């Protein structure tokens, strides 16, 4: 125990425990677990997998959930990277090898490995859609979209992205309409400058707003506590 305490002290790590018998204190990470369970029931509910196959699929799903962008890594306008749960686990974002999209191929035409990939890909596309939807719900709460401004890091909504791929971009210009509302933005991506409507972007939370209130700490009673664009939890094998 003394060794553990020494390592924690040297790395400035402090533990904050929730009270016993109080799972509702962990609403943020419990919400992510709830989402994962719901998608697992949808995708694997009727499957009959052996232990090795189930372990493979769950490991892939774990990597998918831990690849999600949380907040920008820096305020540098040239930096198009985001902090992910993978950084806490392995010190870098999660990566995956490219694979064929087998979601629309009948299961009886797939090999055993391809059937596992189909389960993973179906989970990825459903869960990723829900995650982006939660980010967009938070975005819609911004007052007169005043938070859409140059320099903000955003996720590009692209339904064709393979597992673990999150296209990121920085807002470089905004284009208000005659009513003063912003509906179109110019973005800088790794592939160049593009223009997109705001319905095709999801802004990542930033630490503070103009009123010095944290977007990462929703107020008490806020229904957004059930969304998942927060740091916790890290989905790990147990």
Brief characterization of the structure:
The chain has 238 residues and is an alpha+beta fold. It has helices spanning 2-10, 27-44, 51-65, 85-90, 112-140, and strands spanning 71-72, 82-83, 153-156, 168-176, 182-189, 192-197, 201-203.
Structure explained in plain terms:
This protein has 238 residues and is of the alpha+beta class. It contains five helices and seven strands; from the N terminus they run αααββααβββββ. It has helices spanning 2-10, 27-44, 51-65, 85-90, 112-140; strands at 71-72, 82-83, 153-156, 168-176, 182-189, 192-197, 201-203. The strands form two sheets. Strands 6-5-4-3-7 form a five-stranded antiparallel sheet. The chain has a two-stranded antiparallel sheet with strand order 1-2. A hairpin with a 2-residue loop joins strand 5 and strand 6. Helix 2 (27-44) packs antiparallel against helix 5 (112-140) and helix 3 packs parallel to helix 5 (112-140). The chain is globular. The relative contact order is 0.16. The model is unreliable at 209-233 (pLDDT under 50).
Radius of gyration: 20 Å
> What is the overall shape?
globular
Low-confidence spans: 209-233
Strand line-up across the major sheet: 6-5-4-3-7
Q: Please trace the helix and strand order, writing H or E for each element.
A: HHHEEHHEEEEE
What does the largest sheet look like?
A: 5 strands, antiparallel
What is the number of E strands?
Answer: 7
Overall average pLDDT: 80
Proportion in β-strands: 5-15%
The percent range for helix content is 25-40%
Please give the count of helices: 5
By helix and strand content, what is the structural category? Answer: alpha+beta
